[in-house]
Design brief:
Organism: Pseudanabaena cinerea FACHB-1277
Distance between the termini: 13 Å
Shape: globular
Structural class: alpha/beta
Pfam families: Glyco_transf_4 (PF13439), Glycos_transf_1 (PF00534)
Helix content: 40-55%
Number of helices: 15
Largest sheet: 7 strands, parallel
Radius of gyration: 21 Å
CATH class of the largest domain: Alpha Beta
GO molecular function: glycosyltransferase activity
Protein name: Glycosyltransferase family 4 protein
């Protein structure tokens, strides 16, 4: 048992950005449930943002850092100061930027801490033919950095089998010191949706409207252009609401105009009220081109929302076609259209998919089980 150790385990979680996202939600839930096991947790992240606000609510100590994927003295000093002053049994880095700086500085300081690194989707391994040469070179650099820092890493955690296989193939992880620990979510929160009528008022949705919802950065990875093109062929009885912000915002708004569907699509921007959003929609749609294991999908399933998703990577480890959701090939506009129209016309099928989705979460993706598995990794490394 965790609390039978001779002294309290001290763990530092490092993530570069504090704005809301899958990695930040994971760090918060992991920290929350580690605390319930009498493990002392500190979070190092940007000085302001969603993660800082939520950590403060839970009384989790936060150390402000200022790091980026640019090589600067400021970034080095930000981590160096923290690791030199404070002593941790485990340093757990999340994502490429934190993984680079955390592991580099710990090595320079010859830290006695055990170094754990989590991959939250290996995005740099998904290089498409239309990528610019500059981006290709950056991806090669990120891969090389992960290969070099593997030597100073005690253990790697991948959030799904797909990431594990990609990491091993790319030599950024080794089978002997890599584990798969699926994401977990707080089922108590998402199994208690707020009243649908109330939630719809928040987003200006009429009670009888059929609503498709999407949550994700407005980025190439998330496949929004294919979603919009598919939705243009969906029954005009439906509307589409999208939560998220990103570089493609203006391009996607123009595409909606060109497809003459602007009156049926609402871009809501970045928001933190995903719980209310999921309560308001009828079907969750995620047409990603690649993924690790998206927390937004797990939250939608826990909320009892039928899901239409791309048959890629970690998504297909969660969704079984026609059992707990619909799987569609990536970039398959016709397939997306068919699945969305099918959803509108088959409420009884949607109910069955929703029930199976909730069962999937309770059986495989609970936050407390995720935290216990990671705590066991910490202890295995310490002992």
């Amino acid at each position: 048992m965790i609390n039978e150790s001779k002294q309290t385990l001290r763990v530092l979680q490092i993530i570069d950005d504090a704005s809301i996202g899958g990695g930040q939600i994971h760090v918060l839930l992991l920290s929350k449930y580690l605390l319930s096991m009498d493990i002392k947790v500190t979070i190092a992240t940007a000085s302001v943002g969603w993660l800082v606000e939520q950590a403060n609510i839970l009384d989790i100590p936060v150390c402000p850092i200022d790091i980026s994927n640019k090589i600067t003295w400021r970034a080095f000093e930000s981590i160096h100061r923290l690791l030199k002053i404070q002593d941790f049994d485990v340093i757990h880095t999340h994502g490429g930027t934190a993984g680079f700086w955390g592991r580099l500085v710990a090595k320079i300081l010859q830290h006695k801490s055990k170094i754990i690194h989590s991959y939250h989707g290996l995005h740099y391994l998904n290089i498409f033919q239309n990528r610019q040469m500059r981006q290709r070179l950056k991806n090669i650099l990120f891969k090389t950095i992960d290969q070099l820092t593997l030597n100073v890493t005690d253990h790697i955690i991948c959030v799904c089998l797909s990431d594990y296989e990609k990491a091993i193939t790319a030599n950024v992880a080794s089978p002997s010191k890599t584990s798969i620990v699926n994401y977990g979510i707080d089922i108590v929160k998402f199994s208690q949706p707020i009243n649908k009528e109330i939630s719809r008022k928040i987003f200006d949705i009429a009670p009888t409207e059929f609503i498709f919802g999407n949550v994700g950065r407005l980025h190439e990875q998330k496949g929004h252009q294919y979603l919009l093109k598919a939705f243009a062929k969906v029954s005009d009885r439906a509307r589409l609401l999208i939560i998220g912000d990103g570089d493609l915002k203006d391009e996607l708004i123009k595409l909606a105009d060109d497809l003459q569907i602007s009156d049926r699509i609402t871009f809501l921007g970045a928001r933190s009220d995903v719980h209310e959003f999921l309560s308001a929609i009828d079907v969750f749609v995620m047409p990603s081109l690649w993924e690790g294991q998206p927390i937004a999908l797990l939250e939608a399933l826990a909320m009892g929302k039928p899901c239409i998703v791309s048959d890629v990577d970690g998504i297909s480890e969660v969704i079984t076609n026609n059992v707990n959701g619909y799987l569609v090939k990536p970039k398959d506009i016709a397939g997306l259209t068919q699945a969305m129209n099918q959803s509108i016309d088959n409420p009884e099928v949607l109910k069955q998919l929703a029930n199976s989705g909730v069962n999937t979460i309770t059986e495989k993706f609970l936050a407390q089980n995720m935290a216990k598995a990671i705590a066991d990794i910490y202890l295995t490394q310490i002992i």
